[in-house]
Design goal:
The protein is an alpha/beta fold and 351 residues long. The protein has two domains: 170 residues, Rossmann fold, CATH 3.40.50; 176 residues, Up-down Bundle (Dehydroquinate synthase-like, alpha domain), CATH 1.20.1090.10. The chain is built from 13 helices and eleven strands. Strands 4-3-5-6 form a four-stranded parallel beta sheet, with helices on both faces. It has a three-stranded mixed beta sheet with strand order 1-2-9, with helices on one face. It starts with a strand and ends in an 8-residue tail after the last strand. It binds nicotinamide-adenine-dinucleotide. The site of nicotinamide-adenine-dinucleotide (NAD) has 30 residues, from helix 2, helix 4, helix 5, strand 8 and helix 6.
Length: 351
């Protein structure tokens, strides 16, 4: 089974990737967890499709409780977090027990934050079910909830005990969310891996599904190597934000309703590359490759009408951009990225 190991000074854990893994997840959990109680946090959509199956897998060996939240970003809130805490306490969970995040990035971030903070930390595992969660959010230890003032403003670095990835689960994912995850896969190609980018450009839909296990492995591998060198996001890890700075401004402007996260990142990646080319930083023609691949995966690329002042203000409020300089991620060419420190007064050239 393709396995990666995250090796950080304070924490080591495996990422296991295998089609059909959900059908023997109990066996995998028994290898890393010897107690009885498991609280499974999931959302309504995932529960409807997979709730019964996961219960059947676990109920002979463990005492389980399902905590089900509404699907979507609204569940990454303080009020939902409080309900999760209460349900965990009703289950009389202790620091010797286990919490499972079983869902997309929303469930992963919410559950991870609950696990990090309740009783000063309860071990948890990630069983990601969306493409975005399988290639990105379940790996790297960032957990958070949102505040009315912005996304992910209350959070922590808290790593799971293990990540169990079953690509078969993606068969039930809605196409829009699948494409959403594809935007982040394309991002990995842009910042680190030209072969991945070229493969994605050439695959037929059937080939893409056939190679999904390998693609997930490649993305997790890129994220693992970056996180191992810069766990706390003070340098290289910022490369993972390629397309995100402008993407966040687009998402926010449209109140997180019109564009999904991946769609907004797609627009951000194309736009910054177009600007990079115009400034002579990015190799000519790169933006056309990005446009081609985004169109192939039903992702937008054109910046929607937005006021430049507003974009600059939003970028300035981004928690990564305090001080005189802003960090913007650009690419030299497909597969080669770097962080450019730009003075606040010069930021217009990239917008
Ligand atoms: N922690 C990190 O490092 C990190 C990185 C990137 C994004 N994120 C966060 O991830 C979140 C977005 O994650 P997401 O895109 O997975 O959204 P999500 O969790 O809302 O899932 C998307 C939708 O797919 C449904 N779904 C999930 N798995 C399914 C399956 N197998 N079959 C059918 N439906 C399924 C969900 O119910 C939901 O409706 C955002 O909050 C973002 O901030 C975190």
């Amino acid at each position: 089974m393709p396995t990666l190991n995250i090796n950080l000074p304070e924490k080591k854990y495996p990422i296991l990737i295998k089609k059909g893994m959900l059908n023997h997840i109990g066996e995998e959990i028994k290898k890393i967890y010897k107690n009885k109680k498991i609280a499974i946090v999931t959302d309504n959509n995932v529960e409807k499709i997979y709730g019964q199956r996961i219960k059947e897998q676990l109920r002979n060996d463990f005492e389980i409780k399902m905590i089900v939240v509404e699907p979507g970003e609204k569940s990454k809130s303080i009020s939902v977090l409080q309900n999760v805490y209460e349900e965990l306490l009703d289950f009389e969970i202790t620091r010797g027990d286990l919490i499972m995040a079983f869902g997309g990035g929303v469930v992963g971030d919410l559950t991870g934050f609950a696990a990090a903070t309740l009783l000063r930390g309860i071990p948890f595992i990630q069983v990601p079910t969306s493409l975005l969660a399988q290639i990105d959010s379940s790996v790297g230890g960032k957990v958070a909830v949102n505040l009315p003032k912005g996304k992910n403003l209350v959070g922590n670095f808290y790593h799971p005990k293990a990540v169990f990835i079953d690509p078969e689960l993606l068969k039930t994912l809605d196409n829009r969310f699948f494409c959403d995850g594809m935007a982040e896969i394309i991002k990995y190609g842009c910042i680190r891996d030209q072969n991945l980018f070229d493969d994605l450009l050439n695959y037929t839909k059937e080939e893409l599904f056939e190679h999904l296990e390998k693609i997930i492995y490649t993305c997790c591998h890129i994220k693992k190597s970056i996180v191992e060198r810069d766990e706390l996001d003070t340098g290289e890890r910022m490369l993972l934000n390629f397309g995100h700075t402008l993407g966040h401004a687009v998402e926010k402007h449209y109140r997180y309703e019109k564009y999904t996260h991946g769609e907004a990142v797609a627009i951000g990646m194309y736009h910054i590359t177009k600007k990079g080319e115009a400034m002579g930083i990015t190799e000519k023609g790169t933006k056309n490759f990005i446009k081609e691949i985004l169109c192939k995966y039903d992702l937008p690329y054109e910046m929607p009408p937005m006021d430049q002042e507003e974009i600059i203000k939003t970028i300035g409020l981004d928690k990564k951009n305090k001080g005189q300089y802003m960090n913007m991620v650009l690419i030299k060419k497909i597969g080669e990225s770097f962080i450019e420190k730009i003075h606040r007064k010069d930021i217009e050239v990239l917008i």
